[in-house]
Amino acid sequence: MTIPIEKKDPVLRDFYKITEKEGWSFNGNGPDEKDRELLVQFHYVTEEYRKIKPVYREIINDIAHQMGDGMADYCHKAADGKAGVETIQEYDQYCYYVAGLVGHGLTRLFVESGLANPALNERKQLQASMGLFLQKTNVIRDIKEDWDDKRRFWPREIWSKHVENFEDLFDPANKEAALNCSSEMVLNALHHADECLFYLAGLKEQSVFNFAAIPQ
After folding, report:
1. Which residue, 20, 89, 100, 124, has most beta carbons within 10 Å?
2. pLDDT score of 1 more than 90
């Protein structure tokens, strides 16, 4: 949140190239940012990245490229004062960029390493649902933390059915309305549950199953 969009945009869009740069690190974000330590020490990540097989690097690069473009687009929206999510479609798109693409990438890695049924590679919707379900549980859980940081990921299409203004959800006088709104958010997330179960059935190795299932 402390990096101007003019600086953030090229870093996000070129991040897939950065993983190939030996010694790259970044110290341009604020001292209290949660990801600061990772970026300052990112040269360790690039060092380990270069040790893995080229086929795995290709998958990681592809997903990083798509995710960087998606997040750059969202950052431009936030910079224009439109940080809130309006529709359920927008909400799904945001969650897809943040986590659905990770589901695609992990699936390709699992299949390439022989740890998942190759048929999962053809079931893109199952892959995306794993990521969306995980991200939506995070969004539901982190509502107050995000609001304190001036972020709003609960879509207006849902919360406006229950309160007039988003901040009204935090007023104890609106407890029942807030609980009803939270229930609708949970129901929206549960739409992905069936596809998550089908996906998990395609994982062959116990540690991979645990890795995918426990966060859900």
Report:
1. 100
2. no
